[in-house]
């Protein structure tokens, strides 16, 4: 709550207009949302609408239960309620299914915001790690294939990295004693 409270104090001192703040929020590429204590969206940025796959008009006043599979909505609701009741910022990774049926791995951060009247709001940001995880999995598969090919080769393979250190070798490379002595020195 401290991060959000200090943000509120800063905005009060700057006297930003609502139009300016909305333009700023919509200019951020990560999805951002604000929920009231009834767990209804009261503010969402353009990135959130695009990510969820619904218009702002369809989202405002609705909750997770109105749009997501029950299993996902229940998790989101529980985490939101934790933030509302404890005031402790929550960061987590969850699976999320968009309106097109595509499942994403998301990282979110939710914090409690209190306005000058004492009303509590949940402010959340989302980062989609789906593509990054796919690339990491493809890289692991590719590395496993390369490692298998290297080990299966009848030729000796010795790979030196940019720091002139031995990065990898196979069973058919240079003499073991020589290799051990080279491993701990620059080439």
List the helices and strands and how they pair.
Layout: H1 2-14, H2 18-26, E1 32-35, E2 41-44, H3 46-52, H4 56-59, H5 64-67, H6 70-86, E3 90-97, E4 103-114, E5 120-128, H7 130-152, E6 158-160, E7 166-169, H8 176-183
Antiparallel strand pairs: 1-2, 1-5, 3-4, 4-5, 6-7
Low-confidence stretches: none
Between the first and last Cα atoms, what is the distance in angstroms? 53 Å
What is the helix/strand order? HHEEHHHHEEEHEEH
Q: Mind telling me the C-alpha Rg?
A: 25 Å
Please describe the biggest sheet, giving its number of strands, its sense, and whether it closes into a barrel.
5 strands, antiparallel
Task: Give the name of the CATH superfamily of the largest domain.
Answer: PAS domain
The helix count comes to 8
Q: Give helix % range.
A: 40-55%
The spatial strand order of the largest sheet comes to 2-1-5-4-3
Mean pLDDT: 84
How many strand segments? 7
Number of domains as seen in the coordinates: 2
Task: Based on Cα principal axes, name the global outline.
Answer: elongated
């Amino acid at each position: 709550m401290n991060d959000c409270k200090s943000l509120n104090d800063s905005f009060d001192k700057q006297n930003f207009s609502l139009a300016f703040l909305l333009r700023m929020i919509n200019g951020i590429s990560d999805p951002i949302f604000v929920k009231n204590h009834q767990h209804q969206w009261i503010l969402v940025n353009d990135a959130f609408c695009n990510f969820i796959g619904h218009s702002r008009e369809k989202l405002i006043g609705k909750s997770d239960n109105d749009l997501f599979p029950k299993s996902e909505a229940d998790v989101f609701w529980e985490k939101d309620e934790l933030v509302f009741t404890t005031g402790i910022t929550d960061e987590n990774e969850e699976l999320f299914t968009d309106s097109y049926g595509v499942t994403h791995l998301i990282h979110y951060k939710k914090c409690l915001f209190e306005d000058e009247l004492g009303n509590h709001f949940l402010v959340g940001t989302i980062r989609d790690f789906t593509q990054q995880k796919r690339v990491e999995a493809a890289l692991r598969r590719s590395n496993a294939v390369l490692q298998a090919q290297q080990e299966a080769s009848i030729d000796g393979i010795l790979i030196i990295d940019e720091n002139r250190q031995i990065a990898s070798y196979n069973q058919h490379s240079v003499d073991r004693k020589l290799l051990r002595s080279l491993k701990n020195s620059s080439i």
